[in-house]
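Subgroup meeting minutes
Present: P.N., E.W., G.H.
Scribe: E.W.

1. P.N. recapped why we're keeping a running log of single-chain structure predictions: easier to compare across weeks, and new members can see raw inputs and outputs side by side.
2. G.H. added today's entry (765 aa).
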Amino acid sequence: MVKFGIGQAIKRVEDQRLLTGQGNYTDDVAPDGALRAYILRSPYAHAKITSVETADAEAVQGVVAVLTNKHVKEDGLGDLPCLAPAANKDGSPRADTPRPILEGDTVRHVGTPVAMVIAETLEAARDAAELIEIDYEPLAPATDTEAATKPGAAQLYDHIPNNICFDWHKGDLEMADAAFTRASRVVETRVVNNRIIVNSMEPRGAIGLYDAATDRTTLYSSTQGPSFIHPHLAETVLKIDKSKLRCITTDVGGGFGMKIFLYPEQCLIAWASRRLKRTVKYTPDRSEAFMSDSQGRDNISYVKAALDENGKIIALKVETFANLGGYLCNFGPYIPTEAGTHMLSGVYDIPSIYVNVKGVLTNTTPTDAYRGAGRPEAAYLIERVMDNCAAATGLSRDEIRRRNFIRPDQMPYSTALGNVYDTGEFQTVMEKCMERADWNGFAARKADSEKRGKLRGLGLGYYIEKCGGGNPDTADIRFTEDDKIEIYIGNQSNGQGHETAYAQVLGEVLGIDGERIRVVQGDTDRTPPGMTGGSRALPVGGVAVLLGGREIVEKGKKVAARVMEAAVEDIEFADGTFTVAGTDKTMSLFDVRREAEEGLDTVHERIPEAATFPNGCHVCEMEIDPDTGIAEIQRYTVVDDFGSVINPNMLAGQVHGGVGQGLGQALYEHAVYDEESGQLMTGSYMDYNLPRADQVPLIDFTTHNVWCTTNPLGIKGSGEAGAIGAPPAAISAVCDALGITNIDMPATQEKIWAAANERRLAAAE
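Output recorded in log:
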């Protein structure tokens, strides 16, 4: 196998550059003479703006401009768009929430941008911002996901009664109701998916440069693919032709879904550079990120499962309240509806499911995609239901799953909500994970913990997700004059290792060393459309590279046949060399390229045939000190089915990182807003409990791969898997240790201590 080929555990080629400080992030872009921008944000969660006075701020030395909603209107700028439709149960469209890039009427969450100061220095801009006088008329806020829909709650918009912007449903209610009438048992579960703050290492900076000669703006910003924001920023907000705007993304320090979207800050900087005909730079601090980055999750669901006499689920009914924040973000309505709801069947053969989702507006930061984007919420829900069904029937947690698993002989399997699973060996994966976790030896370890006054729990979670489908990706593969190859592709690495993975795929096809391959991303002038999200980089982008490479080989065979005077069918290709079969006549790939009159460059667009369905089992073993509530994960085991593997090291890294984020949601992280004021109570790392290194366990990770039939790489997306499987496994372990059926995420030290103390008091009685 050639170096940099598929399946090899090579080190990431980008790491030398990134780890030695040679990366080029947005803040590293330092144009001469750049003005600095500071954004003044609302201190109120809900308030009317009655007046804005900027004269004192404008008089500060070094200040170039103070921009408000008045100037937004003067320049005829458009609102930020919500791009996700959602139909109500009666077929009518969802309500909309107008979102100007600077609010001038009513603010609807703390951190809403209300003015921008641009000055020669950041210090001058900050000083001036303090002199802006804004009169607010405070209004009562609504912050609670479910309470916001009740009578008497504060209303965010006059045209949206009860703060419900859509009342969406999916599935067959009549069929589900019929199943419930013949059920032997009904198990009810309330499931909370807590709100998460994304906390990417690199914040969302932006730099706008203006070229007066061409009337053209170049925007540098940290994104998951600049081609996504490009048309919406140009045409919808700035009201200019796309040709007048170039969007560039350099290295990105984490995205996790949050950096897909178009934000007010990008619009403000691009607009300011055009208005002032100067370069303008904005770098937010961490406090701004806490308030303004789109947040994740925040759902409350009520679930009813109908079981037959054998513990088989015959129907599921779910009602979900999904908190979307103060404004609808780009994909906000899509996440709790089509993005995740269709995965509520999990890996189980459930013939009937009905789901109702209510989109709720509250005076909180808008929510949107966060690692997994709806699928973690769905997996957590169905796995909590499975554990509660086990408790209700007296079956073990693994046995209730065995009785409900979709079998391999049922593949391809059509779920009640419309997905078609092409492959999967769910029981085998679970049993392999249990074996590696020494499930059968747990009783002895539990007894040892009890001798030391500790509680020990074993948790099980199985997940499946839908990813690697959707929009196309294009690989534009070009030869250079120095016998190297460049891959221009529209998706954007946020730290996943695209440069390495694409080099491995193309290196395998063309039989060349990966050091001769360079990946180019992040420039709407140079790279094709694309976006990183939904674990698509390899199932879609990687397949585009694979098939583009194969097209190069086929082109090369025709050229080699002409030059070596042979029939095309007699030309063989291996290890970067074309050979006339049965002879010693050969030509290298690059020699053939030089003989090709029209070159060998290839552009291949990959339109996904179907989604992929990675799945896997997580087993979490935890020891709890009942006197303190401290929970320590003793063992963590993962067995995943990713179809095939490009790079085992990078795959393990993706799973490890995802597990860390999933455990963060399960045990530590929670965005909390004060009910009376709407203030974000967890607005810094002093209050928001991001997991530390010693709280993330060592992970026993392996795979049981079943070839995916929907793409020629046989691969199933892996980027979100760890974050999906970890929460149900961790909460299952906590409940098992405490002898309870439910504890809401995050299962913090305080919550665990209270539950353990309650158990101790109950035992004493």
